Amino acid sequence: MVKMRLMRLGAHKQPFYRVVVADSRARRNGPFVEILGTYDPKKNPFELVLDKDKAQSWLQQGAQPTDTVKKLLQKAGVLTA
Length: 81
Description:
This protein is an alpha+beta fold and 81 residues long. The protein is built from two helices and five strands; from the N terminus they run ββββαβα. It has one domain: CATH 3.30.1320.10.
């Protein structure tokens, strides 16, 4: 199964994430299929840069978002509540 999830980047105590599409069996920072955007929770307010067209396309193809990515997609307006 293909999942939309976060890939952690950044230094110690300075997390920065990429929103990626990856095989569900792959490790967290392992191989991925495509990068959809970035998420920076340390900025106030948080910064979310997302390619909405790509995200919508992957959802239509059956990619399952994790709980956190689902909330981010809702905030970006890709998913409806």
